[in-house]
Records
---
Amino acid sequence: MSSFLPALPTIVALVKIGLLVGGLMTAAAYLVLVERWMAAWVQDRKGPNRVGIPLTKVRLFGLGQPLADGLKIILKEDFTPKHVDKVLYTAAPLVILAASLAIFAAIPFGSSLPPIPALGLTGEEPLLVAPGLDVGVLWVFALSSIAVYGVLLGGWASNNKYGFLGGLRSSAQLVAYEIPLGLGLLGVVLAAGSLKLDTIMNAQADSGVWYAFAQPLGFIVFLVASFAEAARLPFDLPEAEQELVGGYHTEYSGIKLLLFLVAEFLHMVTAAFLIVIMFLGGWHLWGVTGSGPVETWVVALVRFAVLSAKILGVILFFMLVRWSWPRFRFDQLMNLAWKVMLPLGLANLVTVATIEEFRPQLVAALGDGMGRTVALVAPWVVFFVGWIAAGLLTPSGTDNTPILTHGPLDVEHELAET
Amino acid sequence: MIAIALPSIAPGTLLAAAVTSAAAGLYLMLPRGQGGRRERTARWLGGLLGAVALAGFIAAGRRLGSVGEEGVFLTVSLVAVVSAAATIASRSPVYAAIWFALALLGVAGVLLVLGAQFLGVATIVVYAGAILVMFLFVLMLAQPTGMAPYDRVSNEPLLSAVAGAVMLGVLSLSIGRLSSEPPACCAVPSRAAAVASPRVDDVDAPTTAGDPLVTDQVARLGGELFGRHLLAVEVAGVLLLVALIGSIAVVARAGDHSGELAPRRAAR
């Protein structure tokens, strides 16, 4: 890069980090407001609509609410109970927040900017903090597995049985659903031939076929697994209020609780980013964004807007699901992970691998258009077969009869003997 | 920088002194189970000796290119070494596991600095993300208080400290000798030369080992693994599959066992 400043790459990276962290934090605050509006809408009430500009009567539909909430929780007493393990109690929220922010080093938040010669940026500037990282998908995976530590340590250090149970449950869930998540990722990585998220988006834009259409089974598996990884409602067992008070953050208050809540919210935002980037085409929209390199600012902004709109759509879907589904029981959750999602993910992976291996022969034998059509239809056949098989063969999720170690006759024996 | 401050000491002597200091420091730091002020003083002294040893190792080692690179490398490697020492020195199993996780993150950071991105991230995914979480699970479930005495003391403090330090010394001596005269085949080009020369994007083109500017590392790594080392990869895969099936078989047999117990209990 020929620039008049030797430190230019560092400055560019710092600016990107600043924009990203600032944007994410603001977005998280306002998404909480959106979630409360959504809850109010589903439950047919008005929701937060009072807080506007302080000391005036201006309400602004309640847009001041996130600021007021944030100030309140930051200014609360930072109370540390006496029975906790102080070091790990303090470290846990920091670990989880640091991990969930560091994930975004590898996640692109747009396509790229056109060259800016006035600043010495002669090349296209990708909207990604670490564009040189060749293992983007793995980086995301690695840091989301580090986030498990925050949950586990928070629960353990609290020295509280509800917190501990919540932490154990949560980490068991996160570890279990990492496998279907990884299988969903692998299908996309195989098809795109790269671990870089921007290359994956470019591949979808070039072919015009989003991976959600090319790998429907992988999309469903990844979607379910990312709901579980983000601990959103059908999978929010870690903090099942009726059973565990507050789960792993029962003993937390004030700013430490805020860090946990922000990190949880960021997990959902990360999941939305990944779903959009890997399966819904990223910044690509047919006939609007084009697919080549970015030459003008208009294209850059349109692509950024398309990506943001898609992400917002997925987040709204997350929120709507929260108010539409009851929570799973723990055995249902584990059955879903190991007996349904794992085989379906494997089926998707094998399908994708087979198609990618034989694509050249397919195109050579059937011609370009026909070969592509077959490659697109085959995963849908697998999808429906897998769906039917899952419906027929998997354990019933609604069976509530307890599993007895002895049959009813044995119990009668035992009763007769005593 | 430090080497300039200590011009009269030969690197070999410095290394030997650092190894001795490291051994003594480790020996003092390992948990002995006496408790009280004496042990605390000993541990402080051990930490001090360990710091001296680290300074010696840094002074005896080679310098990297730029100040920034050197700083980042020193930071992550110090995190790795100090956390590794804390892993064996800490009394609580849970703390030991956390220190170990930190040591793994440090190692991953070293690998990232050296340009081995895939290895670095894979270290986090496999060790810190999967194996160590399982360890933590077992530790927390088996001993919620972490108070079992045999888990809190070191069994062979002297022998293990000496063995570890000698191993460290031998490794750094041999690696240092290897790297001071790189063979003609694997000379690492300087960064400036790599920037000046036009980059080759062809995957099949021969590359210099350890070049941090290669951008398609995963593709090259995959080509290498599934080309030259195909047999080893396949054997490892089969081995893992066998282990998986074996573990399922063990669990399934345990399930049968409890099934056998139930009627016996009913008969009693």
Note: The radius of gyration of chain B is 24 Å.
---
Amino acid sequence: MGRRLSTRLLRVSGRLLVGLILAFIVLPAVVVTIAAFNERAILSFPPTGYSTRWFTRALTYRDFQTGLWNSLVVTAWSSTLALLVGTGFAIALKRYAFRFKGTLEGVLLSPLIVPHFTIGLGLLMLATGIAAGQGFPVLVLTHVIVVLPFVIRSVFISLQNIDGRLELAAASLGARPGAVLATITLPLLAPGLVSGWLFAAILSFNEFTASLFVTSQATQTLPVAMYGYVREFADPTLAAVSVIYIAVTAALLTFANMVLGLGRVLNVEQSR
Amino acid sequence: MTPAIRRRPFLPLFVVPAALVAIAITAGLAAILRFSLHAYVPGSLDVGGFTLDNFADLARPIVLRAMRDTVLICFETALATLILGYPVAYALVRTRSALLKSVILVTAVTPLFLGEVVRTYAWTVVLGNSGFINATLRQFGLIDRPIQFMFTEFGVVVALVHVTLPVMVIMLAAALAHIDRDYEKAAQSLGAGPVRAFLTVTLPLSMPGVVAGFTTAFAWTFSAFATPQVIGGGKVGVVSTLVYQLGLSSFNFPVAASLSLAGLGLALGTMWAVRRAARPLEAMGGH
């Protein structure tokens, strides 16, 4: 009986602890939402009055508009390129032996450990060296480099879950390698490809540190524009942008969770 | 093996694009190496002759202090993240309610997909002198003057813990999810209480995830720039902010390059040491 009581106590305090930690995670989002509707230009708590004028300003501020557009363009290019490059490499990594395989894998996964500011600085130096400047090609290349490890990993994990015998069966029945790839491998890989692409796109859209080094005023992405704003102004405009960001991201993730099963994508489902 | 596999169809198509990206990564690092070994010419992005002075330049107190503080902040952040992340990961994997699982997952993971800038800004609103915490404390009459959180190491670490928590939760949850629950049930059926079963079975088995999560949190914190820059406000100097100052504010590419390389060496060296020290821990999880 005493043991059951202590077990229950343990469970309650465990729940309380997890609740508190989740509150810590949510706290900034809640606070920033309150701040975004603050009427006055100076942040203060509790707000003296409510207004939506910071949202209006956020949506009409030029740097945010161009930043958003640049971000969308760069994200579309880099996540798609990373998906193409990463899928091919993950298949080769899983299935083939070839020269410099280990070296290539090490270099491509290195952005997981090499700080983004180092990657950004290197590409900035490279770009100034070949007079490419801070244009879109260098920016897209930077994003591909940064998100590629996640795509490779995501596709690689999906490949592990494919039964290789299906491909062998197709091949032994006379399907050419191209047909096997198109009718067996890629369709079976589809969920991994979707999650890899989604992951790459979200990470690219949010990438900041490396982008800061390789963007100019004309090519700056939304996070870079936001960083520029926070350095110059202290009004709640950025709070309004943050609220939009948080709302869209949370909605996308809830959606992804319902449709794809986020737990499966992130590989955190209890296996048995 | 069938001939189809031995023939390696589409090998060039699969590998050449990746090789090009790898070349770009290598070229970027090579550019840093080149700049780090050449003299700085003030007012120009071109460099002078070969020199090792840029590395000798790093022996200044401000740089050494930044390096020490960076490692300290990374350690504190990774440790705090581990302690906060474990219970959440455990609850995420073990809860039987599908709704609760979704709530925990989306709550814990959403910050991962919010950029460093949004999260850092949000923390300035929480931690500022007239921010949420100080205003609340003042309203309840607990303080007269605001507590200084901004521009302190403590404030930076709090925000960084928030930044690295999602990754930690995911890595720990992945490790916990792949532990066979039967081990724990076996321990309990043999008379171990839930605490003892956790401490002697589940926790040791999750050690590889703990070590992986810790080193990843360390690497992420080392890479963080916006958080120490904005919350630290120049008072908390770390390697990333110093590299930015040197590289993009004063356009001293050579010293920025040598500091980047030294920082990379420092990060890799520390992570290698952590991994080595944790080897006995990791061995506990080996099945």
Note: Chain B has one domain: 61-284.
